[in-house]
Amino acid sequence: MNELQIKGERAKEASYFLSNVSSKQKEQALLNMAQSLVERKEMILKANQLDVENAMSKGISKSMLDRLTLDSDRIHAMANGLKQVAFLQDPVGEVLSMSKRPNGLQIGQQRVPIGVIGIIYEARPNVTCDAAGLCLKAGNAVILRGGSEAFHSNQAIVSILADAVSASGLPKDSIQLVEDTSRETAHALMKLNEYIDVLIPRGGAGLIEAVVKNATVPVIETGTGNCHIYVDEFCEMEMAKAIVLNAKTSRPAVCNAAEKLLVHENVASTFLPLVAEALREKEVEIRGDEYVNHIIDDIVIATEEDWHKEYLDYVLAIKVVRHIDEAIAHINQYSSHHSEAIVTTNYHHAQRFLQRVDSAAVYVNASTRFTDGEEFGFGAEIGISTQKLHARGPMGLKELTTVKYIIYGDGQIR
Amino acid sequence: MNELQIKGERAKEASYFLSNVSSKQKEQALLNMAQSLVERKEMILKANQLDVENAMSKGISKSMLDRLTLDSDRIHAMANGLKQVAFLQDPVGEVLSMSKRPNGLQIGQQRVPIGVIGIIYEARPNVTCDAAGLCLKAGNAVILRGGSEAFHSNQAIVSILADAVSASGLPKDSIQLVEDTSRETAHALMKLNEYIDVLIPRGGAGLIEAVVKNATVPVIETGTGNCHIYVDEFCEMEMAKAIVLNAKTSRPAVCNAAEKLLVHENVASTFLPLVAEALREKEVEIRGDEYVNHIIDDIVIATEEDWHKEYLDYVLAIKVVRHIDEAIAHINQYSSHHSEAIVTTNYHHAQRFLQRVDSAAVYVNASTRFTDGEEFGFGAEIGISTQKLHARGPMGLKELTTVKYIIYGDGQIR
Fold first, then answer.
1. What pLDDT digit, counting tens, does each position of B86-117 carry?
2. Which domain holds residue A19?
3. B356 touches chain A (CB under 8 A)
């Protein structure tokens, strides 16, 4: 057995233990994890410094360096996240339905942990802690495979968390880190069907594509957000402007930020100058089709590639459409099926958009920025699913569980 | 674009149409499909005869030939299946929950069709009809890829069903067959992520393994059943005997048949002779461990391979265990996680088995043969999922849907 198989077998073993511990025990373990993180933060900071120095010597980008770097505040934030998760309601054990069949069998569907969850992610050490906490709370063992840039930080964090779990009377192997950060080992992890029940990639489009392409373990695709806002011919312009500005500029680098604006031609000549001025005040680069180019000066003409693209930056591409169905068709064709919004005062258009747009979250008169586990009231999230199987949209604790049928009989045969 | 991409694009287009038609329209289409099948059965029988002749000249097995062969009764049964599905409750549109957030956003989770479903299966033409009916009822377009042995039968059935769908005012492309039955095209279908939302393989372990290994499209694994019955030290022997006999011999070739029997050592010397005699009357071959060999004459000693194996035949392997936890551990290690049963009179043992066995359906005092969409009250099933994502156990119409979040706002920004 290689490193991965050994870790897999241990994780499976730990998962059977975890699936039968009380909510109270898991809560206590999470609180202990939070406390240990803070108590042993010097160990994390020292390890992180090593990662940061290595990364700087390799010349990684400023934004990546920012995501990699930890300080005391960030460690406290991680610990607070664990505490918050500790007090969330435990989803495990709930019987979703139970009914009696004509033959007397009582058939129930019960929520149970998934088992072993694999997380593949990039250079954000806080993901290590967040993911471990959520998986544990839902009764799952987790195998973490973070980016090589954060290796020492992840090692320190996992060692501290696993110690705390173990001191709480739960298996130390509930939280494990893949020590070998090579691509080969990542690929082997993606094919570890015997031990891993689901793989969740967290990171950029390239990482997610690589996992979808190579994994034989079931995957939940997360995160890519080519989100659209459609401004209908019937709408309050000020509301539309506020929603576009918020969705584009409040945090452009996240997946629920708007990347595209579709505007009905009947309001294009009034709305576009209004929104363009506001966007330019925020230094947003505007791209657009020929129609937009006639109305606003100094735009970049959008190419076919633009309609597919998730900029994650101060860039917005605008298209003018002739009617709501053209907007819906454009969205269904080009969207990554994450979040889309219509701004309208028309009842029928609102309903039509909600029913026909094929995305995880569809909004009427609100910013796409709300697609988020916290905002949806889940307390925390492990990611945002853009696929249709198992989970769609923000994934909280419930999405880290599965069900099984439990059947009470008294001798029934068929 | 190749054949598959064209079919994929058409299926996607059809799926958008289907996701917005009324339950009444889908019901009528299904009734028309049923009627057409019967009216045009000569066309199916002629095509099937061609397949049967080809198959016989290639010398396929008797059981495969039986599954391939259609007659008037079987076509009527397919039509009746469609009628039954027509009158099932439409799962689409249900709002599972809706709540108001502190900021006034109303966030609801609505059941919607998955979109485009791919079905890969072997030489059973009735699957063509069953799968098409269920997918349509749940508002999905379907792309069917059956085995080459049933090609002409499938072509006739799909042509009749698609005509009936079209005559009902729904897109003809709602039901499509992949005409090229080569392995290369099957593999291309497994990677058609742009158009297919989920792939469901139906068939033997080899087919399912090939799909899991090669697909980049999300897969729902179905069917393999290495099912166990554990006879506890506290139990009614006659009930235990009846359940074992039923689970093993009522239909040995199906996935919910028992393949393994675990017996507590305290009852082994009394129960094993009793059950062995009954099994041998039904001509079941008994394999067993050394302990069993001491109690029953003329058994085959079971190898490690036996514990993993799904016989799908009149063979049962028996193991004696020292306590319930050994039974649970054995099941969790060797089972295909389909269906397992305990026979016991002990409350704590019943609860322990239900909670700790990690399978899709876990029974107390009943035969594993009940794991079935009809028996569970779903009206029909598309397969039995042995994986943990999205669906677990028998899959009915609900499992052919997904959810999306619909959000009603009045100008909220974040």
1. 999 999 999 999 999 999 999 999 999 999 99
2. 3-221+389-408
3. yes
What's the number of domains chain B is made of? 2
B212 with B323, same domain: the answer is no
Indicate whether A56 and A147 sit together in one domain.
yes
Q: Compute the distance between CA of residue A188 and CA of residue A256 in angstroms, rounded to an integer.
A: 31
Same domain, B312 and B362: yes
ipTM, two decimals: 0.94
User: How many Cα atoms within 13 Å fall on the side-chain side of residue B111?
Assistant: 16
The model's pLDDT over A4-18, given as tens digits with 9 standing for 90+, comes to 999 999 999 999 999
pTM listed for this prediction: 0.93
| 12-71 in chain A: CB under 8 A from chain B | 16, 19-20
Same domain, B74 and B91: yes
Q: Say if A235 falls within a structural domain.
A: yes
Interface test with B, best of A12, A105, A381, A399 (most B CBs within 10 A): A105
| B408–A contact, CB cutoff 8 A | yes
In a domain, B25, yes or no: yes
Nearest alpha carbon to residue B286 among B268, B273, B270: B273
